[in-house]
Automatic annotation (TrEMBL):
The keyword Membrane applies. It comes from the Bacteria. This is MFS transporter. Keywords: Membrane, Transmembrane, Transmembrane helix. It comes from Gluconobacter wancherniae NBRC 103581. The chain crosses the membrane at residues 15-33, 53-72, 79-101, 107-128, 140-163, 169-189, 210-231, 243-267, 274-297, 303-324, 336-353, 359-381. InterPro entries: MFS_trans_sf.
Amino acid sequence: MTGIQAVRYLPGRQLLLLALGLSICSGCAYLGSSVMPFQIDALMSGLHQSASRAGMFGFFEIMSFAVFMVVLSRLTGGVSVVMTAFLGAGLAVLSSLLTATGLSSSAWTWGCALLFGLGEALLGRSYVCAASASENPDRMYAISNGGGLIVLVAVIDAIPYATRSFGELGVFVGIAVIVAVIAPFMATLRHAPPLSVRQSTEKMRLTRGGVALLFIWVGSSLGSSMAWSFAERVGRAIHLSADYIVFLSTVGIVSSVLVSFIVGALAQRLRREIILPLTLVGTGVGGLLACCAWDSWSYTAGVIIYWNCSMLSYAWLLGSAAALDHTGRVGTFCGGMDRMGYALGAPLGGLIVDHASFTMLGIAGCVACVVSLPFGLPVLLREIRASGTEGRPASGLQVG
């Protein structure tokens, strides 16, 4: 019996511990995307950087995460996920503390952003590889995405306290402290089933199904980023208060956490050919509704639909990558390309807003989310069925 097959006999306690480690790893890996507005504000207020200089910090942070994720997809399965997780956490802590020293040169802050992106990429690689090797990747991704959101909310809530305690650059100190405190829980990633010798050494192959998944994934990320980047601006344009907009985002996050846990528990009963296109279309429709909102009700509906569908679609995209390749390399590669699409979404959305309208922005974002589905989804599903993984855990592949 191989290590992959042995996971079926793990006690429930060990699977829960693995879910805990995955949740912490997920939250830390995608921390930069969530706290970037606070980081940029801290650089502008604390180091008196211009908006363009501070904005480049965010660009280097996200793009380095994306590029390093693509590079790390070439790592063989023999490299321990626990080791890369702790190395990534250490780099995230170190880069945050270095930024908090107060040196204001662009080379210094941008270098810290590159280092933080590398740390996130290492964490992302550990998260994807460990979850992909589990008995039911769709379930583990849904649950750990929800758990990761809890981590993100905790960090965001702690930022005001860190700022009051350590000054304008306290956001970086707060990130470093929280990551250092929760990182030890990632040791439970050791419960991820090991790969066989052959799987540990084989090279990543991007098949036709993998290419189809890549187009679907990047399109969804690009479209959601285009629409969501200006959602707050739309809310202000229809005269919603800042407090209501923030409260609505919190409701969206909390509801998506609950839905992720519920769907994760029911993952084996849900069909990929239904849940994946449904959530991708829902992401596009939610962004469209938020951008075209005419009152508080339409805006609220758009935001709630967007949050829940985007979280679930991301889990099923990762699960689809695991169904194609449970070593996690395809998921790591596609995850890096996904971040590149997300990074490009905001500037493209800005061009549309400058030259057209919020309505056109919503339409463009929705189209980007769904345009690849008609030709990409059949190819993806056909290859998953042919691999013999659909309808049973991905770990059921014959190995070794």
